[in-house]
Design goal:
transmembrane; two-stranded antiparallel ribbon; 2 strands; 312 residues; MCP_transmembrane; mainly alpha
């Protein structure tokens, strides 16, 4: 496949080289690094599932059910499977969509949103749906043990859900996941690019001029932290995938039904449970996938002498 090179009126020339397998491995590897934030993921999910818990209460609950290892529930294999697959999907789809958005004249902010949203929705339906379902099962099934019932193993739980509910059961809550991933990465990429533009103005850099590593990390951290605005979608997703028993909870949950249930039982605060660890997790993940992703692609470019995926 030949490289694509196209001038955008009034802007710099864009150049795109063919996608290589190494780029997909790069995305997978970077997203594996994001799983170092699994303790924040567990705290966030625990607070979303147990909406009366404070941050301190959630950490005590997690410690009581497994000590230090409790903070890594759902890491193996689900978080690793999710990270490796969704990282490759995100870096490939987001970069492609961002390149073509710029090809049609979109500014960095809009192109970043387009890339992030495209990558996020591709992630949700390709791999994230069933992985987040199983991670949530891992984190919430301790209620079975508390009631005196020995919980099934991870793989036995997976097969039990599949036998009873089929592929729909494994992908329960996938529409909420799609909304979350689309808004997540649309916000993270878009706000990160907006922050990069602001940093260029403050430091008197020209449009398109590369930022330093510290400036990239600062921009991504800001973009990731601010992207926690969609926490209600995350709380809805956790509730839809939770295996806790509640006779007051509606059957056959949809996103709308779950929203009403949470709002009626916990109010507006319930929809934002776990937002604090989510801010930290968002900052960490965005720094890894946006800042380190850009820096890593630049490093590959220098080593191979080629542009990778979509650079400008």
């Amino acid at each position: 496949m030949a490289a694509i090179s196209a001038p955008v009126p009034g802007t710099r020339q864009l150049e795109k080289k063919p996608v290589k397998f190494s780029n997909l491995l790069l995305g997978a590897g970077l997203n594996i690094v994001t799983t170092l934030g699994q303790p924040l993921e567990v705290v966030k999910t625990t607070m979303a599932a147990n909406r009366s818990d404070s941050f301190a209460g959630a950490t005590r609950r997690i410690w009581s059910r497994g000590g230090l290892l409790g903070y890594y529930q759902g890491l193996i294999p689900w978080a690793w499977i999710e990270a490796s697959t969704k990282g490759a999907v995100l870096l490939f789809v987001a970069s492609e969509a961002e390149f073509y958005a710029k090809l049609f004249g979109a500014p960095d902010f809009v192109a970043g949103i387009a890339g992030g949203m495209s990558g996020g929705i591709a992630q949700a339906y390709a791999t994230v749906g069933f992985c987040t379902c199983m991670k949530t099962v891992e984190i919430t099934r301790h209620k079975m043990a508390a009631s005196g019932v020995k919980p099934l193993s991870t793989y036995a739980t997976f097969m039990d859900i599949y036998r009873r509910e089929g592929i729909r059961g494994i992908n329960k809550g996938v529409n909420a996941v799609a909304i979350r991933q689309t808004t997540n990465w649309g916000s993270r990429f878009g706000l990160s690019r907006l922050a990069e533009t602001a940093i260029r103005r403050v430091t008197n850099k020209e449009e398109g001029q590369k930022l330093s590593a510290s400036e990239k990390i600062l921009a991504s951290g800001l973009g990731g932290g601010l992207s926690a605005w969609n926490q209600p979608i995350e709380v809805i997703r956790v509730e839809m995938q939770s295996k806790k028993e509640d006779p007051n909870r509606p059957k056959n949950l949809t996103v709308a039904k779950t929203f009403r249930y949470i709002y009626e039982t916990n109010g507006i605060k319930g929809l934002y449970r776990g937002v604090t660890p989510r801010v930290g997790l968002g900052m960490w993940q965005t720094v890894c996938m946006v800042a380190l992703g850009d820096l890593a692609k630049d490093a590959v470019e220098k080593l191979t002498g080629e542009k990778v995926i979509a650079k400008h």
